[in-house]
Predict the structure.
Amino acid sequence: MSPCRHSGFGYLLYTPNTDCPDRARVVRWNISSGDTQVNTRCGGIEVLGLLQDRLGLKGVFWDAIGSLNEHFGLLGYVVIGVFIVSWIVSIAIYKLRRYDDINVKTL
């Protein structure tokens, strides 16, 4: 049995075990990529909203940006959804590729 084999959904998500560097890498990559996507998109919307406000830009695109800025609280729910979906995809990839069955050699 591999030293990576553990049970429990929460363990897979929150505990990058030092006995299992692959699991730690998957968890860290998932959290980092999701965080980067969310920060980039939210920051981009904020910057575009500032440009629209300061420069008085008009049009369909700029109206959409203004609407997003007015309803930024709703965007928080989208952010939570992005994290949930990315964790589910991460778990699915981990399980489908059978990373638990890989023998890890330690030094």
